[in-house]
Amino acid sequence: MTTETVHVIGGGLAGSEAAWQAANAGAQVVLHEMRPTRGTEAHQTDRFAELVCSNSFRADDWEYNAVGLLHAEMRRLDSLIMRCADACQTPAGGALAVDREGFADAVTAALASHPNIRIDRGEIVGFPSDWRHVIVATGPLTSPALAEAILSLTGESVLSFFDAIAPIVHFETIDMGVAWRQSRYDKEGPGGDAAAYINCPLSRDEYEAFIDALLAGEKTTFKEWEKVPYFDGCLPLEVMAERGRDTPRYGPMKPVGLTNPHKPGEKAYAVVQLRQDNALGTLWNIVGFQTKLKHGAQTEIFRTIPGLEKAVFARLGGLHRNTFLNSPRVLDGTLRLKADPRLRFAGQITGVEGYVESAAMGLLAGRMAAAESQGRSLTPPPASTAHGALVAHITGGHLQDGDARSFQPMNINYGLLPPMDPPRASETGRKFARNERGRARKRLMSVRALADLDLWLQAPEVQ
User: Fold this and answer.
1) Is pLDDT of 268 > 50?
2) What is the CATH architecture of 6-158+325-416?
3) Nearest to 298, CA basis, from 278, 315, 283, 320
């Protein structure tokens, strides 16, 4: 079979997955990554699939959680990202979290050793005319030169939003005489650990004083970006507090499902949770504490949290600007740029939000580009699957009136999949409670998604 080279630009999660899938499908792949020749605002290394924000891939429950369903689909599709995540997991309750350094090392080693992949280190500023199959997976930190090249082809503007990073603490500096280990509701995660989080309790007075300090703390400002919105998935903690003093307490600082063994008769008013960040358990990130506080303010304010009075930070929080395409307007149903079908886009730049969502779009882009390089065509999985639902979202299939102006980044969720209803009482003789009916609906949709994905995998054009 004759095959033409597939060029993948960007070595993040989407680009790494795209290169892996295309190479496994028999294509010759050149994976272009500009680091370390040119750095970014957020990356610290030259490794592929470096995680610059959280180390969590979120919930791993395929039956009742849409992210877990996406995990399951990716595993069936031989995802490199999921393979390495499973191999490098750290305790995280019901979530799948990874040792970020071990994970990046594993992805990098797999790509470097693949016989069909050649790695090219250097910045790409345009698209040579002899490149016939290109996947652009440069993410939200696309270099200005390449962004200009993309804009010149689309004639569109690029939407922007702020993305924030949470701080990481050295475990040995956490006071475990105050803090304790427990997952919320003692829920076991993929590794079977029901005590995956470190919890720091706050009384009402401590919480109010913390919120006061958070609101008053000196923050990073970007005057030229003042009208750029925040994406809710990475909303800075102080922005939550600005929306309402109790907002953090109903979000990342909620105290439910936890019992302090140091004071079993006393209920915390709020709780700060830390999640293991590396396999050794020496580093822990503060869950939901994305912030734009200046570094000095962060150390001062976060050390007022009981248990973190002597915390030493391996990394402090930060803020950077992200970009994504108006994908429903500029991309077709197979992620190709309408103005130049040689180019496919994958990952966060397309308007999916989240690690696994980005990798999933890289997975499909890699498979579709490989098929085209071999003279075949490959359509995405049906919209009843998590993968197909994401493609439909970013290419406009979800817009009933075709109006792309309302397009915003999106995590995978059951609302993107065609609905299903569990049997009615008249059919079963049993009446579901409202919460039971909701769970039953999710499971039905998950079972359907995996069955439909299996049928798609059996189609001749996918083989």
Assistant:
1) yes
2) 3-Layer(bba) Sandwich (3.50)
3) 315
